[in-house]
Amino acid sequence: MNGTTHQSTVNLGTVPTTWSIVGSGDFNGDAKADILWQNNSTGQRVIWLMNGTAHTSTVNLGTVPTWWSIAGSGDFNGDGKADILWQNSSTGQRLIWIMNGTVHTSNVSLGTVSTSWSIRNY
Predict the structure, then answer these.
(1) What's this model's pTM, rounded to 2 decimal places?
(2) Contact criterion met (CB below 8 Å) for 45 and 61
(3) β-strands 103-112, 83-88: how paired?
């Protein structure tokens, strides 16, 4: 994109349909967006580190129970690196994984709300 103008399209390949892109952000501090994925069947979470439009490596964040889903990503603590926002569909709990690059360092609880509420990233 150049402002609101589409400039070009890049094909990143094909992944199984159980994987969903759930966020993007600069996880490794190189000033380029990386891609956050979750496997909706297994609970596995990974980050694709990107160099512009090229996928350079994959960081495995481990497997988390599937009732926890990633609701988005953003720099919640102001360190210049993306953190991960989670929601629990069974309990209504919300929390942030504070990340130091691609390493999960701590949690910040946002409390619990009714399970009829969900965070959406549009």
Answers:
(1) 0.88
(2) yes
(3) unpaired
